[in-house]
Amino acid sequence: MLKVRLKASQFLATMYSTSLQFNFRTNPFLIPQRRCLHPSIGFFCSAKASSSTSVVLKRKRRGLSSSSSSSSYPSPYFYQQNLGYGRFAYDECESASESDRDTESSKQLGESTLHNIEEWRWKLSMLMRKKDDQEVVSREKKDRRDFEHISAVATRMGLHCRQYEKAVVCSKVPLPNYRPDLDVKRPQREVVLPYGLQSRVGDLLEAHLSKKSTNKENLAHNASLRGSNGNNSPNDKELYENEKPFARSVVAERILKRRSLEMRNKQEDWEGSPEGQKMRELRRNLPAYKEREALLRAISENQVVVVSGETGCGKTTQLPQYILEAEIEAAHGATCNIICTQPRRISAMAVAERVAAERGENLGESVGYKVRLEGMRGRDTRLLFCTTGILLRRLLVDRKLEGVTHVIVDEIHERGMNEDFLLIVLKDLLPRRPELRLILMSATLNAELFSSYFGGAPMIHIPGFTYPVRSHFLENILEMTRYRLTPYNQIDNYGQDKMWKMQKQTIRKRKTQIASDVEEALEAADFGQYNPLTRDSLSCWNPDSIGFNLIERVLCHICRNERPGAVLVFMTGWDDINSVKDQLQAHPLLGDPSRVLLLSCHGSMASAEQKLIFDKPEDGIRKIVLATNMAETSITINDVVFVVDCGKAKETSYDAINNTPCLLPSWISKASARQRKGRAGRVQPGECYHLYPRCVYEAFADYQLPELLRTPLQSLCLQIKSLQLGSISDFLSKAMQSPEPLSVQNAIDYLKTIGALDENENLTVLGKSILNYMNLHFLLRLLHCYFGKR
Ligand SMILES: Nc1ncnc2c1ncn2[C@@H]1O[C@H](COP(=O)(O)OP(=O)(O)OP(=O)(O)O)[C@@H](O)[C@H]1O
C-alpha cells in the first residue's frame, strides 16, 4: 500500500510539472464551463470585458445603433450583447506552447508603476482615431498615482476616465458611477447552454411564433366558416392538432427559404457594388481562385477532400468562403453550416474578421468566430471560425455534429494533439453522417498522409503566392551587420530570473536527435567563402542560446538601414519575449517610443491585446512585434515586411535525466521556418532573417513530430478516459500515427498499479483526483500569471 501511495505521489509530482500542457493542449473538455474562478479575476468572469489589461469595445460592429449612445451611457443590454454573455456554449483551453507566462517585474515601493505611459498614449490616440471603438479598459494593477497619470492623459485628449476597483476605463462617452460588467465582487456570469439545445430552443421559438400567427389567421378563417356553416367544421382543438406537424415543417421550411433568399440578395448586392467588385478583383488574383470550381466539385462529390496549399495561396480565407458563396448562390445559405477550425485563437479571430470584410459584412453576420471565452456569432452566421478545442468540446455534447454541413480543419500539418484527436473522432463520425463534408487543409505538401488516413481521399494542390521574400541566414546576417559573436555575448539575459534561466539554458544542452543533427551539420559546414570575422563568429556560435544581443543588432540594422515596414520577431515563449523586450526598451533607438513601437503577442494575452499587432502605427514609427509561434500560421499582419526567426519553439519533450516531461525550446521544422518566412511578403515584398546558419536549416526535420508521439502516455491515457473515448489502446490505435502498442500497454499498467485506473480501465477516484489536481495546477498557474507572483 505504501509503495502504491509513493508511486501515486511521484506520479502526481510528474503531472504537476506537466499539467499545464495537458489541460491546455490536450484536453479542452476538462475546463469547467463555469468560468468565474475568483471574484477578483475579472478576466475569468466574463468574455470581452474580462481581459487582463485592455479591451476595446466595438459598438457599431456589433450592430448597435450609434444614435442610442452618442452621449449617454450604454444600456445594460449593450453590455449583455457586447460582452457576449450567454451567447456561446463552448469553451476552449489554451495551448501550452502559448501559456508559459512569467511574472511582471515587481513594483518598487512608493514608486509609480506606470512605466508604459507611452503605450497608453498610443492606445488612447488609436481609440480617438477609430470611430467604431468606444473605450479602452485596463485591468493591470494600478495605484492612485497611475490612475491620475492616465486620467490626465485621457482628459487632455477629451476622453472620460474612471476607475472601477481594479479596472481603469477611458471612454469617448461619459462614464457612470457603477459598471456591472466591471464589478468583480458580483460578477455577471455567462449562462452556458449546449449548442444543440440553443439551436433547438431558437428553432422552436421561431416555429412557435410563426405558428401563432398562422393559427390566428386560421381561427379567424374558421370562425367565419362556422359563422356561415354552423357546427359542421372541425373544432378548434382538432384543427390545431391536425395542423401541428404540417405547420411546423412547412413553417420552418418557409422561414429557411426566405432567409436563404435574403442571403442570396445580400450577396448579389455586395458583389454588384463598387467595393465588392474591387474586393472580388483582389480575391481573383489569389492562386486559390483558379481551383475554385475544382475544389467545389471535389467537395460535392467526396465526403473527404485534402487540400494542400502553400503559404499565401488563399486556402484559409478563400476556401471556406467559396463553399459559403456556393451554398448561398444555390439558395441553401440558411441551411448550410460550415465550421472551420484554426489551431489558435488569434488566427480564428483574424481570419473571421478578414473574411467578413471580404464579404462586405460585420463580424457576426454570415461569418463569425468562437474562441476560448469569447466569440461573435449571430442568428445568420453560417461560417464559423473556431479553435480546434472549441469543436472538440462541441463534439463531446453533440457527438453527431447535428446541423453541421461542412467541417474544415485548417493547418493540419501542425499535428497538434487537438488536431489529431479531432481527426480520430471525425473519422469515426463520417459513416454515421454521410452528408457531412470534411475538408482537411495543410499548408505543406504532406497531403498523402492525410489522404491515406481517410481511405484515399482526393487531394488538390494549390501553389502558393507571396511577394518575393529574401532569406538571410546567420552567415549573411553577420556579414551584413558586421556583428561579432563571442562566447560572452551569447548568454541570454533573463533579468531578475537570471539564475533560474541560466539553469534552463544548461538543460537545453541535453541532446535531442535534432540537436545532434544540428551539431553534425555545423561540423560538416564549410564557411570558406565568408570573411575571417564571420568565420570566427560562426565557430563560436552557440546553438543553445536564443541570441538576445544578436536580435537587438538585427533590429537596429533594420531600423537604421532598411525601408519602412513592421518587423515580426519569432521567439520561443513569454519569458524570452519579456526579457528581450526589457533589453530593447533600454536601447536608445529601439526603446525610443517616438521611433519604435514594441508589441508582444503571446497565447496567454487577452485577445484585445493580441489584436493590437494588426494596427498600423503612426507614420515614422516602426512596429516591432515579439511573438511566439502562435503568429506562425494563417495570420496576415498587413504592414509586416521583415521577419526575424530565432529558429526555435517550445515543445513538450522528456527531460531524460530527471525522467520528467518538460516544455523546452527546440529547433523548429522546415515547414515551420517556411511558415514564419511566409508572414512577410503577403501584401508586399519582404525579408526574412534566420538567426541560424543555412546548414542548420538543412538539418531541420521536414515536419515536426506529432504531439501525440511526443506526449507522455500516462497523462494522455487519463485524458482519453476522462473524455469517455472508449478503450485507450483502441482509441490510440485509430490515430494517424499511433504510439507503440507496448508503450501504451506499459502506461496503462502503470496507471493500474498506482490505482488511477481500475482493472477494467475505468478512472478511479485517484485517477479523477490526478486530473483535478492537474486542473488545480492549471488554476494556480493562471493565478500566478494574473497576480504576477512566484
Ligand atoms: N487581413 C488581410 N489584409 C490584407 N490582405 C490579406 C489579409 N488576409 C489575407 N490577405 C491576403 O490574402 C492572401 C491569402 O491569405 P490566406 O490567409 O488565405 O493564406 P493561406 O493560403 O491560408 O496561407 P497561410 O497558410 O500561410 O496563412 C494573403 O497572402 C494576403 O495577400
UniProtKB/TrEMBL annotation:
Comp. bias (Polar residues): 225-234
Pfam families linked: DEAD, Helicase_C
Name of this protein: RNA helicase
Reactions accelerated catalytically: ATP + H2O = ADP + phosphate + H(+)
One of the record's GO molecular function terms: hydrolase activity
Region of interest: Disordered: 212-237
Any one annotated GO CC term: nucleus
Phylogenetic lineage: Eukaryota, Viridiplantae, Streptophyta, Embryophyta, Tracheophyta
Family membership noted in the UniProt record: Belongs to the DExH box helicase family.
EC numbers on record: 3.6.4.13
